[in-house]
Amino acid sequence: MPKALSWLAALSLTASAAVFMPQTAMAAETASVSTLFSSLSVTTETNTGYDRELFQHWIDADGDGCNTRSEVLQQESLTPVTFGSGCTVATGQWNSWYDGGTWTNASDVDIDHMVPLAEAWGSGASAWTAEQRRDYANDLTLDVALEAVTDNVNQSKSDRDPAEWMPPLAGTACEYVTDWVLVKYRWQLTVDAAEAAAISSTLQGGCGANVVQVPTIAVETTPVDPGPITFSDVNGSTQFNVEISWLASQGISTGWVEADGSRTYRPLNAVNRDAMAAFLYRLAGKPAFTPPATSPFSDITPSSQFYKEITWLAASGISTGWTEQDGSKTYRPLSPVNRDAMAAFLYRFGGNPAFSAPSTSPFVDVQVGSQFYQQITWLASQGISTGWDIGYGCRAYNPVQPVARDAMAAFMYRFVNGGTGGITGNNCSPPPPANPGDTKNCTSFSTWQAAQAWFDTYYPWYGDVARLDSDGDGIACESLPGHP
Question: What is the pLDDT of residue 20?
Fold first, then answer.
């Protein structure tokens, strides 16, 4: 529940340069809970060496004679508190939102560390200084870090994470997991696989889309190396398994944590445009970028998933979206990225390199002058994608086919590490089609385009075998709708 922090307490905590980093987010910066959760590292945890005494508490941070427990009790009481000796709170009124209990005696209330001390130790605090652990145990800066709750409920929770314990009161799961993520984000603590799966499950639907103020990061940490990432749906026989593993090792895509704690990559899923922005932003090394306060696109907002990455992509000129009939700009974040657009993304990401597109297309399904022809043929010349061999020396690119996640990994791997066997020419020599004879007339086709396509297929081999071009100008069935 919201708690006010006296300016003196805030000053006391933030003045310790050895403990706190400079603020990395503006006070007004917001993000979805899912976005903050996705930034947390997933790794194993160990409580070896944990001792509660390593987290000094409760302290009097602002020197007013009241320790942290007393501060929380005063701030969360719904009525004026009374005191016993000194600044020891005796009575008030506290609502324990974990279980719905209401208490008037302070002795019935515990101050719960949202992320328990033992849990914090196992997920990063073991590497902190004594001062950092002290400040974590007495964190009055983040209003959800410490909660006044029923004492026996707090004891029931103990040091368990959301995979092992959730508040017993119905309807509190989303708020609890949101607060848990905020604390872990602020203190840059890791999550284990089971914990991540439980949080992910709770965030499904509207909960994860809730917008929160981004907490100030409190400690400077060295990223924990989780070791090689493995996916349960990728193995040695999976196409592009080397490229997928490389993508994961670079932190460009680490997949999903499933309910059983395993990770999946979902290699055959299509890549959507919002995720493509995230992949490219990470491929670029997460460059410093402040997203605009007002979205340049009518179909995304500052709270949208990957808002920062999408607006970085637009600012970099890699993708500026569409101009709609009403003059608005849209990004279409959930539309899949087709293979022709992927070529354009990478070409622009590479700085629009100088390249003369070949006068003959290397692909039977990409014509000279077609959309993204230069970018597609540049991609082929670099060996980043040479399409499919369809026989007789012919190759197809399938430009309007959505890019799957496995192929996306291959595109990016070759972009960074170099492709092999680039192509620019065309050795396509298919055998002639069987002679259809005089089997068609103009009434066999509903449109001129269909008649012309049939004519163009057979004319180079057999001439106007069906006598569709009455005036010999190369245009078939000029009586049909749509003719030039």
Answer: 28
Residues in the chain: 484
Residues 273 and 331: beta-carbon distance below 8 Å: yes
pLDDT at res. 291: 84
Taking only Cα atoms into account, the Rg of the chain, rounded to an integer number of angstroms, comes to 31
The contacts found for 420-425 with CB under 8 angstroms, 24 or more apart, are 420/383, 421/383, 421/386, 422/380, 422/381, 422/382, 422/383, 422/386, 423/362, 423/380, 423/381, 423/383, 423/386, 423/395, 424/358, 424/362, 424/377, 424/380, 424/381, 425/358, 425/360, 425/362
Give the pLDDT of residue 24: 34
Residue 126 is given by DSSP the state: G
Q: Reduce the DSSP state of residue 152 to 3 states and report it.
A: helix
Cα–Cα distance between 202 and 362 in angstroms, integer? 49
What 3-state DSSP class applies to 216? Answer: coil
Q: What is the pLDDT of residues 108-143, one digit of tens each?
A: 999 999 999 999 999 999 999 999 999 999 999 999
- With beta carbons less than 8 A apart as the criterion, state whether 184 and 203 touch: no
The string of DSSP codes covering 68-105 is HHHHHHHHH-SS--EESSTT-EEEEEEEETTTTEEEEE
Distance CA 142, CA 7 (A): 14
Low-confidence spans in the chain with pLDDT less than 70:
1-28, 220-227
Say what the pLDDT of residue 364 is. 87
What is the three-class DSSP state of 64? coil
- Given this model, what pLDDT does residue 8 score? 27
| 366, two tokens | 């990409």
Rounded CA separation 99/131 (Å): 33
Which pLDDT does position 2 carry in this prediction?
36
Provide the token pair at 390.
Answer: 């369809």
pLDDT value for 348: 96
pLDDT at 226: 55
Tens-place pLDDT, residues 4-50: 332 223 323 332 222 222 233 333 378 889 889 988 888 888 888 89
Please state the separation of Cα 295 from the chain's center in Å. Answer: 18
Most distant pair of Cα atoms in the chain: their distance = 110
- Tokens of residue 312, six digits: 């970085």
